[in-house]
Amino acid sequence: MHTTVGIVGGGPAGLLLARLLHGAGIDSVVLESRDRAYVEQRQRAGILEQATVDALRAAGAGARLDAEGIPHDGIELRFGGRAHRVDFPSLTDGRRVWVYAQTEVVKDLIALQLADGGPLSFGAEVRSVEGVDTDHPVIRYLHEGREKTLTCDYVVGCDGFHGVARTAVPERERTTYERTYPYSWLGILAEAPPVYEELIYAHSERGFALASMRSPAVSRLYLQVENGTDPADWSDERIWDELDARFALADAPEWRLKRGRITQKSVLPMRSSVTEPMRYGRLFLAGDAAHIVPPTGAKGLNLAAADVIVLARAFAHRATTGSTELLDAYSDTCLRRVWRAEHFSSFMTTTLHSAPERSGFDTRLQLSQLERIADSPHAAAELAQNYVGLPIDTTI
Ligand code: RFL
Ligand code: PHB
């Protein structure tokens, strides 16, 4: 089998790329190792930037997002027992974000691709990508118990942090910059209405907490926990009590989250990582395959979308003009945005979490930074502009 663009991985990056290429009349094949139900149910991101929403609409995946997505015009920061709202539109020339779960984005893109797009194979586990420094790279994969090959003009590795595409770049040609954090998140999904209409990011002496949502009836909540935490050690009651303690307000001691049945519980480690360059020969890396951010800034899915928007435009440019100029610029173009998001995600993480080895001095620096955001429109604008994301041209 042969295709123009072989896409390894059917997460948000691979699926959105396939749709954008389809719209530009460029054929592609998506190979995804997991089954459809698994990919559609993997609980992850919840916040979409304006540019991600625009790209999903351009890809034809805007209908349910526009009907069910919840626009948010700000976030609340809680620290020192007080609440401060950061308003996005007034600080960012009218930009905002949307609550629409990654699971729903993935379901919408899969339905479209299966309806009228190029091949999308589930249960197709890519074993290796070869010949990326030749004109016809090859993807070798296992599907329905048989070894198969797909020859391509280009290969895009959208196979996430543990993917194999990255390893097709010789070690001497790539550098990975990394940071791990001395804490993790315990995330829960609960059948409980969100307590507030926007997200609440809380700094407290007991550690960080985040109140997010999936719908008017379902809350998504996170607690900072020690690395290596077993979710089984956290009973439902302990989780709710700890969340209430971390969100506590000095002037509203009666304030409590609305409790409900906890339907999912998991622990996720926090990491920052960037692999450079994001292109080698005819192989391009996009999304988590190239970079990881800790989730505190809500950037991961949005960076994945930005990469494939840039890449789809570059493929379309090559198809219409024959020029590889934009493909050649892909890595540099993306890395500017990636490092901005890395900085912001690391800033949000280290400003809001309590490191186990922290001193009183460290905590006072965090509180001073948070007070500066609450008091100064300039400091608040810096946070707001990073949170809603850099503008990007989403026309392909
Ligand atoms: P994915 O989603 O990991 O998809 C990669 C796909 O590749 C497949 N795969 C293979 N397929 C074939 N052959 C192989 N050898 C393969 N190896 C892997 C995998 O099965 C998978 O389907 O990467 P992609 O597409 O780059 O998307 C990235 C996002 O998923 C990720 O950045 C976000 O979820 C991060 N993130 C958040 N991002 C946001 O923008 N906003 C948020 O609010 C937000 N919250 C989060 C998050 C990530 C979280 N976790 C669990 C890490 C909250 C959490 C809890
Ligand atoms: C989520 O809703 O899962 C979510 C929201 C904001 C974040 C991280 C995760 O910063």
Helix and strand layout, with pairings?
Blueprint: E1 2-8, H1 12-23, E2 28-31, H2 36-41, E3 47-49, H3 50-58, H4 63-68, E4 70-72, E5 74-79, E6 82-87, E7 97-99, H5 102-116, E8 120-121, E9 124-130, E10 138-143, E11 146-157, E12 175-191, E13 199-202, E14 209-215, E15 218-225, H6 236-247, E16 261-276, E17 279-280, E18 283-285, E19 291-292, H7 300-321, H8 325-352, H9 360-375, H10 377-388
Parallel strand pairs: 1-2, 1-11, 2-8, 5-13, 11-18
Antiparallel strand pairs: 3-7, 4-7, 5-6, 9-10, 10-11, 12-15, 12-16, 13-14, 14-15, 16-19, 17-18
Helix pairs in contact: 1-5, 1-7, 7-8, 9-10
The protein binds 8-demethyl-8-dimethylamino-flavin-adenine-dinucleotide and P-hydroxybenzoic acid (PHB).
Give an overview in words:
The protein is built from 10 helices and 19 strands. By secondary structure, it is α+β, with helices and mostly antiparallel strands. The protein has a domain of 234 residues: FAD/NAD(P)-binding domain, CATH 3.50.50. The strands form 3 sheets. Strands 1, 2, 8, 9, 10, 11, 17 and 18 form an 8-stranded mixed beta sheet that branches. The protein has an 8-stranded mixed beta sheet with strand order 6-5-13-14-15-12-16-19. The protein has a 3-stranded antiparallel beta sheet with strand order 3-7-4. A hairpin with a 2-residue loop joins strand 5 and strand 6. Helix 9 packs across helix 10. The site of P-hydroxybenzoic acid has 9 residues, from loops. 8-demethyl-8-dimethylamino-flavin-adenine-dinucleotide binds next to helix 1, strand 9 and helix 7.
